[in-house]
Amino acid sequence: MASRLLLRVLQRALPGGGRAAARARAMSAGGVPSDEEQATGLERKTLEAMKKGQDPYSILKPKGYAGTREDPHIVLSINKKRLVGCICEEDNSAVIWFWLHAGESQRCPSCGAHYKLVHHDVPH
Questions:
Q1: What angle do CA 40, 43, 47 make, to 5 degrees?
Q2: Is 80 exposed, middle or buried (0-12, 13-18, 19+ CB in 10 A)?
Q3: Please, what's the largest Cα pairwise distance for the chain?
């Protein structure tokens, strides 16, 4: 009850009930800036790359591969080897971990899906 009374007193004391001042301040510079206008640094680089259709930081879902010898799953890495986890069956709760090395595609030791390591440069 006391907080409502205090709120009413403050609203009456401010010109326009406290609402016009806030509205004028936000619109005085031409409105609220968009994400593109306000972004800086890596966020700005990412937004600019997304406009060009690129995905520099692997934000989007990767392309699906069949996992066969002709069409292996592509694994990006900045090193010559990478630890990969394979969930062999869709409802399986166990992950099969194995090292993937640069070069030819390699098979998962459990299900036989093929994976290939591809070198990926860091965008920044």
A1: 110
A2: exposed
A3: 76
Which structure tokens are listed for 61?
Answer: 């879902």
Q: Which of 65, 70, 79 has the alpha carbon at shortest distance from 104? A: 70
Q: CA 85 to CA 104: how far, in whole Å? A: 18
Model pTM score: 0.57
Which is nearest to 77 in space by CA: 56, 102, 95, 97? 102
CB atoms within 10 A of CB 7: 11
26-76 pLDDT, tens digit each: 555 678 888 888 899 888 988 888 888 888 777 777 788 889 999 999 998
Read off the pLDDT of each residue in 94-105 and give the average, rounded to a whole number. Answer: 94
